[in-house]
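Incident log, structure service

09:12 report received: a user says their structure output differs between two submissions of the same chain.
09:20 pulled the input from the user's history:
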Amino acid sequence: MGSIGKYAFIGGVAIAVLMAFVSVPNGALILAVLGAIVGFLNITEDEHQGFLIAAIALMSTAGSLSVLPTLGAAVTAVAANLAAFVAPAALIVALKSLLDSSRD
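09:34 re-ran on a clean worker, output below:
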C-alpha cells in the first residue's frame, strides 16, 4: 500500500506541473482521484495537523502568485493545480481527524 500512495503523490505533483503548460484531458478529475488516494494512504495520524496546515496555506495562497513578473502566470497555474491535488487529500485527512477525535 505504501508504494501506491508514494506513486500517487509523485504522479499528482507531476500532472499538476504538466497541466500548467499543456492541456491534460480530465486532468482535474485525475488530480482529485490521486489526491484522495494520497489522503487515504500517505498521511498518518501523526502528520494530520501539519498536513492540514500546509494544505490550508497552499490553497489560500495559490492564486496570489500572479503578481510575479514574467513567471507569474506559470507559477500561479502550477500552484492552483497543486491546490486542486491537495484539496481532496485535505478533505480525507480532515474527516479522518474528526472521526479519530470523536472516538475519544
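09:41 both user submissions now match this output. Likely a transient worker issue. Closing.
09:42 reviewer note: The CA atoms of residues 57 and 83 lie 10 Å apart. The chain has a mean pLDDT of 89.
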